[in-house]
Design a protein that fits this description.
Strand 11 and strand 12 form a beta hairpin. Helices cover about 40% and strands about 20% of the residues. The chain has a 5-stranded antiparallel beta sheet with strand order 7-8-2-1-9. Strands 5-4-3-6 form a 4-stranded mixed beta sheet. It starts with a helix and ends in a 25-residue tail after the last helix. It is an alpha+beta fold. It binds a DNA duplex through strand 5, strand 10 and strand 12.
Length: about 375
Amino acid sequence: MEGAEAGVSVGSPVHDRAVPAGSPSSRVIVHVDLDCFYAQVEMISNPELKGKPLGVQQKYLVVTCNYEARELGVKKLMNVRDAKEKCPQLVLVNGEDLTRYREISYKVTELLEEFSPVVERLGFDENFVDLSEMVEKRLQQLPSDDLSALTVSGHVYNNQCIGYKTAKRLEALGISSVHDLQTFSSKILEKELGISIAQRIQKLSFGEDNSPVTPSGPPQSFSEEDSLKKCSSEVEAKSKIQELLASLLKRVCQDGRKPHTIRLIIRRYSSEKHCSRESRQCSIPSHIIQKFGIGSYDVMTPMVDILMKLFRSMVNVKMPFHLTLLSVCFCNLKSLNTTKKGTIDYYLTPSLSTTSCSGKRSFKMKDTQMEDF
DNA sequence: TGGGGTTAT
DNA sequence: ATAACCC
């Protein structure tokens, strides 16, 4: 858990929204947003990177970077060329393999699930936690004196470097609840806080306020993709597809559930703005599904055959073609137990898979991490 | 723009 | 199967 710990304490603004404690529909939702998550994972894996301007590269893009790099002008999703030009000392690490990012991402989610099981993931680096129940229980434990001191505390603050001050300034303006903020004059707020902050927090106050936090649970699909300069032969495509499939099979094996559908996605070269994708999917034959957990049976060969059929149903291999992306996706995941227990098993029991799967997930969390928040 | 992910149509 | 959205 070292990764998540450092990620949270070093890099993350925590946006905390609350409404007055007495209100009937009161909810407390914490938004945990890890900034430059990939870069932090890399710095934890290799501490020598700490203190240097660091970018995470995928193909010719710097998809994210640490604060040192940002101070030197590097931006997210910047071209590698531009980034190097802005910042010649920039250290780049390849981040095309998401495995470690994914693993640590789920460790963060699992940590948050200790506070409440109601955790919704958004991408790899954001989580929404509904703490309403926990807060209510704690409020009930409080002596009534303390409670009355708390009832004023409906407040909003967001994540500028000092969020606290903004909250204070809002209070000075008589804004002490979300509703106050919503109905407050935009123009006055802009004069007080600056146009940027004012508009942002006022939008936040209207935002996803009443949308429930939907627990994400285990992923509904697994996919691996690779963008390419040019794939123009069936042989090339097959070899890429084999790579993607091999990685996916490892992941599926570790997960323990079995995919019942497979999809192949391509992107064709085009000068058009709309670089849309095409896909074909099919059910996986049940005799193959059964073999997924077992290391001794070669599931690659029949799966590659299926994928190549899907490929040929999209691409006329007798004609010239030019693809710029290949992706394989496993979805329609089912537990072995198709009963009512369903996917909750995923969290409560370790994977039953055989020795062919090495990387079992750990479900144990350390208690001490509570304090890191 | 990468390499993912979700839900709606 | 695709679109539209999120990071």
